[in-house]
Amino acid sequence: MPLLVMKFxxxxxxxxxxxxxxxxxxxxxxxxxxxVIVIVSxxxxxxxxxxxxxxxxxxxxxxxxxxxxxxxxxxVTAGLMALTLQEMDVPARSWQGWQVPLKTTSxxxxxxxxxxxxxxxxxxxxxxxxxxxxxxxxxxxxEGRITTLGRGGSDTTAVAFAAAFGAxxxxxxxxxxxxxxxxxxxxxxxxxxxxxxxxxxxxxxxxGAKVLQTRSVELAMRYKVRLRVLSSFxxxxxxxxxxxxxxxDILENNVVAGVAFSRDEAKMTLVSVADRPGIAAAIFGPLxxxxxxxxxIVQNISEEGRTDMTFSCPVDQVARAEKAMVAARxxxxxxxxxxxxxxxxxxxxVVGIGMRSHTGVAAKMFQVLSKEGINIKxxxxxxxxxxxxxxxxxxxxxxxxxxDAFELEKAA
Length: 412
Ligand code: ASP
Ligand code: MG
Description:
Helix content is 33%, strand content 26%. With 412 residues, it is of the alpha/beta class. Strands 3-6-2-1-9-11-12-10 form an eight-stranded mixed β-sheet, with helices on both faces. A six-stranded antiparallel β-sheet has the order 14-15-13-16-18-17. The chain has a two-stranded antiparallel sheet with strand order 4-5. A hairpin with a 5-residue loop joins strand 7 (138-140) and strand 8. Helix 11 packs across helix 12 (395-405). The longest helix is centred in the first third of the chain and has 16 residues, at 16-31. The radius of gyration is 23 Å and the shape is globular. The model has no long low-confidence stretch (mean pLDDT 95). Bound molecules: aspartic acid and magnesium ion.
């Protein structure tokens, strides 16, 4: 029988009533002739509550026990979903990650999926079971300990199951009705996209469009899983939601697919470091070791053997970055005059695979910002993305102006 993966996020399973609504959707797919693997998140707010309990009991917690606690939310939903389906006479049972088993690395709190066994669940389908409900976000390490995949990890569980079982499609039910050209809270001209290419979605996801965990998009791209994002609060037809797919499956698209942003950035500049071979490694090595997520990097031209090195990172990592740089200076590995942190910046990016074949996108972006009187502090580009760092207070304005200028409210 054709197989579907359906994933329900926290808001879609927040109460017994919502679980019933989700179960009805599953029941309709079963009635239409599908076997279904349902991946569930914890009920809305539950994972945060569990993380809070861990912090309360042990601020410098043992990550293995953190995973034992925070994975529990999904176990509850999985059991409740299986019970609800049984109440509707749909043959269903639940699985926790270790029972599948879904094997991961031992990187607790951010484990990677290594393997998903399919024989166990397939055998049950063979015996008449129609729905396998699997707890998302969790797996088992080589040491036999429970692991979790990082916040938002149930999306990744869903895509990985779709790949492992060769599912027809992976439907991600959430509280928004799809992927938008930008956040509708910033401009009411934001438009839902019918289709978006994996690579575009990857950029948007990692730039802070919180619809899908980035890792899930990477997996979908690698295994060509047709991924659909849709609302669990609306009646959906065939065209509902957004299909994340191969670029060949998109006939026509705007050059720019969307405008993404990330509000809480910081820009740090090491003033006057020695410009010598190895200096970048001496700076960014210790930052990486300290767990600082460096994003944009700019090195100035050097004068008399000295240069400025600028990088951006999330604003809540500034203290950690400063500590790492001061320690590196004390060890004599680097030398700088001053470390200047600008904590009031935001990143705005335009994304689109059309940029590969169209020139002038960057020029247009810079003109738009200049017309609004917005100063650009740092620029980076990739094949399908241009990002700028600007003062945070202009972020909304920049997103609105760019959305207008690239006419994203209109479909191609
Ligand atoms: N419940 C987990 C979280 O809140 C995993 C997920 O829902 O994707 O991060
Ligand atoms: Mg999520």
